[in-house]
Amino acid sequence: MLFPLIAAAGCLLPAQVSEAEGTIGGIVVKAADQSPVAGAEVVLRQFIDGSLVVVAESKSEPDGKYLFRKLPLDGEIYQVGANHDGIHYPGEKVRLSRRQPVAGVKIEVCDAVAEPNPLVVWE
Q: Secondary structure of the chain in the HEC alphabet?
């Protein structure tokens, strides 16, 4: 499923990636209707010493696409996520290696609403 998403998102295909570099790309969409989200802050985190550490940041393009290139291929585990309307939405975790130098991650976000308040307190 990763490669169709990557091809559909217009990201690099494995044949276009150098042996020493990995790529994570995909799209940020609204969960409700799967429409692309432009300008979402996309954050790439890497597991380092048991903690997720921010290693790169970007913004989604007008068509919702994002791309991180030149990532190490030593079996590192990454997690990409998007910030939208003040909320962070984590995507799936991926491991890049020489056997799998490319990963595609779709990140689903929701629109925040101020009113009507969906929370109701009963007395």
A: CHHHHHHHHCCCCHHHCCCCCEEEEEEEEECCCCCECCCCEEEEEEEECCEEEEEEEEECCCCCEEEEEEECCEEEEEEEEEEECCEEEEEEEEEEECCCCEEEEEEEECCCCCCCCCCCCCC
C-alpha dist (Å) from residue 74 to 9, 19, 22: 25, 11, 10
pTM: 0.75
Q: Tokens 């990557």 map to which residue?
A: 6
Q: CA 103, 99, 14: angle at the middle one, nearest 5?
A: 55
The per-residue pLDDT of the chain, averaged, comes to 84
- Tens-place pLDDT, residues 12-42: 444 444 457 999 999 999 999 999 999 999 9
C-beta atoms surrounding 96 within 10 Å: 22
Cα–Cα distance for residue pair 91/5, rounded to 1 Å: 14
